[in-house]
UniProtKB/TrEMBL annotation:
Protein name: Sugar phosphate isomerase/epimerase
Gene3D superfamilies: Divalent-metal-dependent TIM barrel enzymes
A GO molecular-function descriptor: isomerase activity
UniProt entry keywords in alphabetical sequence: Isomerase
Domain of life from the UniProt record: Bacteria
PANTHER family to which the protein is assigned, alphabetical: HYDROXYPYRUVATE ISOMERASE (PTHR12110), INOSOSE DEHYDRATASE (PTHR12110:SF41)
Domain Xylose isomerase-like TIM barrel residue range list: 23-245
Record's keyword annotation contains Isomerase: yes
Parts forming coiled coils: none
InterPro entries referenced in this protein's UniProt entry, alphabetically: IolE/XylAMocC-like (IPR050312), Xyl_isomerase-like_sf (IPR036237), Xyl_isomerase-like_TIM-brl (IPR013022)
Keyword Zinc-finger in annotation: no
């Protein structure tokens, strides 16, 4: 069973009111690791002290492509000070992903970033949504970006909901990126309308996903729910409880 973390974007509304207090709540729910999307205005060393005091592992952080391209050395220094294991590019600007050549250019950019991160002892990943699963000349954009048939320093942080939303089988992509998908973003799709839902409450086949994840060497399930219909703290609690009991 991979370890379990939470992407703090899920609880962004409460984090904006009380960053450190929300981290404390996340720890109280039972999460032992987090993925950041912001550092809450804290310096890297101050943030490291906060998570150390709470007993939370600072696993990874989502960093914009702009920062990765323009401030990579600063981003790496921040990650090292906080103690992150991974940096993740979470999004591609629409205007930069229109053509096959656009994807080729982005693939080269991601590879360069990954090489530099790896040199500094930090793993680098790309997080998908649904648009990367559209085909151009018979090939999906995700494969153009990450090319599963070649050795690469860029991992795939596969978002299983968005793969499902695109009409694809999440287990296929876990298997396709075996040994390159340490981090899996987990959320479910509602049985009624397909919207974001707590893990285990929707239509995704979690037993098949768990089996594929184990066989493919996944290391972390990262709970992320883009939109919560109720209290986001209760949402992440429900997802954690499902993940903890499911392997039994």
């Amino acid at each position: 069973m991979p370890n379990i973390a939470v992407q703090l974007y899920t609880v962004r509304e409460v984090m904006e009111r009380d960053f450190i207090g929300t981290l404390r709540k996340v720890a109280e729910v039972g999460y032992e690791a987090v993925e950041f999307y912001t550092y809450g205005g804290l310096s890297p060393l101050a943030l490291r002290k906060v998570v150390d005091d709470l007993g939370i592992k600072p696993l990874s952080s989502h960093i914009s492509l702009t920062r990765l391209e323009e401030e990579l050395e600063v981003v790496i220094q921040e990650a090292q000070a906080i103690g992150l294991d991974y940096l993740v590019c979470p999004w591609l600007p629409t205007e930069r992903r229109q053509t096959v050549q656009d994807y080729a250019d982005l693939a080269a950019t991601l590879e360069k970033i990954g090489d530099r991160c790896n040199t500094e002892g930090i793993r680098f990943a790309y997080h998908n949504h649904d648009f990367e699963l559209a085909k151009q000349d018979g090939q999906v954009g995700l494969d153009r970006l990450l090319n599963p048939s070649q050795k690469s320093g860029v991992q795939a942080e596969l978002d299983l909901y968005w793969i499902h939303y695109a009409g694809e089988d999440p287990t296929h992509y876990i298997e396709r990126y075996a040994n390159r998908c340490d981090l899996l973003h987990v959320k479910d799709a509602s049985k009624t309308d397909g919207s974001f839902a707590e893990v285990g409450s929707g239509v995704l086949d979690w037993q098949a996903i768990f089996a594929a994840a184990e066989a493919s060497g996944a290391k972390w399930y990262i709970v992320e729910q883009d939109v919560c219909k109720g209290d986001p703290i209760e949402s992440i609690r429900d997802s954690l409880e499902f993940l903890r009991r499911s392997p039994d």
